[in-house]
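Lab notebook, bench 4. Still working through the backlog of constructs that have no structural model yet. Next entry is a single chain of 460 residues. Request: give me the structure tokens for it.
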Amino acid sequence: MLENDLMRYFGFATFRPGQKEVIDSVLHQQNTLAIMPTGNGKSLCYQLPGYLLEGLVVIVSPLVSLMEDQVFGLQKQGEKRGIAFNSQLTGTDRQYVLHHLHAYKFLFLSPEMLLQEAVLNRLSQVPIALFVVDEAHCVSQWGIDFRPEYLDLAYARQQLHHPTTLALTATATKEVEADIRRYLLPGEAAVFRYSMNRSNIGLIVEKTTDKMATLRSYVARLNGAGIIYCATRHQVEEVYQSLKSSYAIGFYHGGLASDQRKMLQQQFSQNQLTLLVATNAFGMGINKSDIRFVIHYDLPDSLENYSQEIGRAGRDGLASQAILLYQTHDEQIHYFFQRETQEQINQLIERSEVDLGAPWTPLQEKWLQKSRKIGADQWQQTVQQNEQNKRAKLREMLRYINLTTCRRTFLLQYFGENSQTIDPCCDNDGLVIDQEKESHVSGQQDAWQTLLLKMFKDVN
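Model written out:
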């Protein structure tokens, strides 16, 4: 019985909803898509089969922080055969790993790293037990400025001799599901879809003319650990500066050194930090179950990303809050990004048609390679359609902001689910936050704050 294996390897007596069905599908060598809510234990769906199957488990992951968190989680379980194969390793270390793949069970890497010729060639020479694409919704989120390599994962899978493939995600509309099946799971595939509803997370949208004052008010009333999401690195640091004198707080974005990001992630997980201000580079797959609230200081660009990010709260099943602060014209930052992307597209089209003689940038090289592979017209059409989809997703996000009806019902229907009655579940249904925080920063937190400020003296 799988329950015996679960107890043997992980010490659990029972599976969470959906885990056993997905694992059973994979063990029967069925290509599988699992759409399971955040906090439902998706990692177990490849870890347990990894122990029961011969060969290496290759996990494609979008973020270095996610890879490192997964490896750290394996190490806490006593598993030493996991490795994050990324740019944090030296060239010598990467060569060592490639020549000693037999010593590893779980290999985490990005699509860009996987598609390097030397890496793909070496992996093609070893038995692959399972090919996993974590956060598989990224297949639908690529753009001219975001990870077009996701479209080449089918090629990588072919080079690896078509191993059994498991695609995992917490959020996927029917359109995203179709993209995942198209690019990752050709032919017949088993699809397991479970509700993305997290009934323990209250949903609140606060329209305000003074975001910082509103943020301070909420943080003062909320207990426990929380994440504050901002759209840009500059905004992250600005919010951090405003709150750092009152709370045990850190900030996280892609501009920090890798060792700083890793340390922050671990310290937040270990409750040495109460608050973390971050871009969406933080939190995907983080192994911290007791996050009590997620506050969006800036408007997310889609309901998919919003649902992913609020899903990091309350993974222990206890009451938690998702609060979105909205100020008139907040969406302009995303319109700016979209216009900037459109300008890049236009420049790249012009550049591909006329040889200007100057060296190609890495982004232009990607464009040229894709154009040559599938044809310039088809590539341009695909990219333009992708950008139109992004604009449509932003419009849906704005609809959510302006709702006067139940927000949970709207979210569930967006993802193709039936509404569920939970009272109260959102601000439109009467949900309010009235608890008072018992205290602010303790002496221990003050000491930690001093250390944190010292650590970041060269960043601030």
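Notes after review: Confidence is low (pLDDT under 50) at residues 437-460. Residues 36 and 170 are 5 Å apart (CA to CA). Flag for follow-up if needed.
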